[in-house]
Amino acid sequence: MPLNSTSKTSPPPFELMERVCKRPWEAYLPPIKMADNVWYISGNDWVAAYLIDTGDGLILIDTAMQESLYLLVENVHKLGYQMSDIKKILLSHAHIDHIGAARALKELTGAEMYLGKRDLLFIHERKDLIMAGDYCCGDIEPDTLYDDNTPITLGNISIRTVSTPGHTPGCTSFFFDITDKNGQKLTCAMHGGVGLNITKKDFEQTGLPPTLRDEYIASLKSLDKESVDITLPSHTNQVGILLLVDQITDDFNPFIEPSIWHELMNERLERTMEIVRREEMEK
Ligand SMILES: [Zn+2]
């Protein structure tokens, strides 16, 4: 089974975003257990949000879109939690599909909100770079900026952040260990943004520095050295998690597969180098 299945037949992201925002009920996905106490809960089948039960409150990674927020809220309740149990909201990067519901969630939960410092540019000066369409996104202001030397700790979970510029300047990746019910330690990780916005044309359009591409390449190479048992994709199609859902049982977690992380890093690196090679030839 292709674990790393970016299907050639999937519609382009804009169509997927339209579907999630305009007809969220068509995209509804109930909570998916990725690991003990770690859930995919965005409520839609396209862009991820993860809920982590730390034993002393919840951490939410990313928020998905404001238009589909009611489905995320429904999933939190389905798992038996209250919105006020969410104590920290970690944002991977300042694109609307990941932070669209951040303001509403801040209002709902009062949670401490985190963002990568270099994405302050987006929320303060370049809101045009947050949006990719006419969607709702309230103004946000992080309470705390990531410091890669200071893990984010709550209850029995400690999340290590790694600045991974490229997809956006402040894009941040997350690593944390959980102990499953058998006492096995498992490392979970989410790359903050492996979608590509890195052609010369992209940089001309956004005005972002082309050196971001070099940072992206360097961070993919560096992250490929990490050992990750469970890859948490920021979009479902990066890792074919929807293909694996049916295999989940009380005794089997299909997401435990250390090769997936390396496949994802290498596939994105290969695609990036292909763009670099093509542009070199066009010179
Ligand atoms: Zn993005």
Count of discrete alpha- or pi-helical segments spanning 4 or more residues: 9
Q: Based on CA inertia axes, which overall geometry fits?
A: globular
* Sequence of strands across the biggest β-sheet: 1-2-3-4-5-6-7
CA-to-CA gap between the ends? 39 Å
Name of the CATH first level = Alpha Beta
Relative helix content: 25-40%
Q: What is the name of the CATH topology?
A: Metallo-beta-lactamase, Chain A
User: Can you tell me the number of structural domains?
Assistant: 1
Q: How does the major sheet shape up?
A: 7 strands, mixed
Topology:
Blueprint: H1 13-22, E1 32-35, E2 38-40, E3 50-53, E4 58-61, H2 69-78, E5 86-90, H3 96-99, H4 102-109, E6 112-115, H5 120-124, E7 144-145, E8 152-154, E9 157-163, E10 172-179, E11 185-190, H6 200-206, H7 211-223, E12 230-231, H8 241-244, H9 259-282
Parallel strand pairs: 4-5, 5-6, 6-7, 11-12
Antiparallel strand pairs: 1-2, 2-3, 3-4, 8-9, 9-10, 10-11
Helix pairs in contact: 7-9
Bound molecules: zinc ion.
